[in-house]
Hints:
By secondary structure, the chain is α+β, with helices and mostly antiparallel strands. It contains 5 helices and 10 strands; from the N terminus they run ααββββααββαββββ.
Amino acid sequence: xxxxxxxxxxxxxxxxxxxxxxxxxxxxxxxxxxxxxxxxxxxxxxxxxxxxxxxxxxxxxxxxxxxxxxxxxxxxxxxxxxxxxxxxxxxxxxxxxxxxxxxxxxxxxxxxxxxxxxxxxxxxxxxxxxxxxxxxxxxxxxxxxxxxxxxxxxxxxxxxxxxxxxxxxxxxxxxxxxxxxxxxxxxxxxxxxxxxxxxxxxxxxxxxxxxxxxxxxxxxxxxxxxxxxxxxxxxxxxx
Length: 239
């Protein structure tokens, strides 16, 4: 059970560093709290005389989803996920405690967990406590990144920041330019294999990344002590 906990801790921490990436260092006064990092309020169009073409081009304002039992739904983008039977749904307090453990495993226990959590909205985290598998859904506000920040920039920043912040980990990145569609949303796909020999820990992570309006939507699956991938859980996502 201890090694399973380490796997889950490592998963959360790796996702946190990937999410931090090359985020912009604006003044703290300009930053919103975690609970309001992603707006729940859709703004109406200023003009009512937009033509049909303009209406078709209107972007979706990505909001936080909701968890009901084992089911996560995000009506703003049409994403849903049903956690497999027996998986544990993490509370915010559990996420923070697990991240602290992951920082220690990765060799950087001096980093500030609160700072990491302010950079990303952890909308849904669930895991299998018997296998170490886990799924995370994150929302990131693009205003925290430099202007013009792209998905390719995100991946490059993830590689850099993760390598620096996890010095005890051997990381093999898999970036092949793949794409997948989940719940009608097109995602860029990349992944990594992680090994920390001191703890006899080795896992695979799959990242699905989509830019929706002014946010990044990130799905992350970690294999735990299995040979599974994100593809094995496609059936848990809604049509």
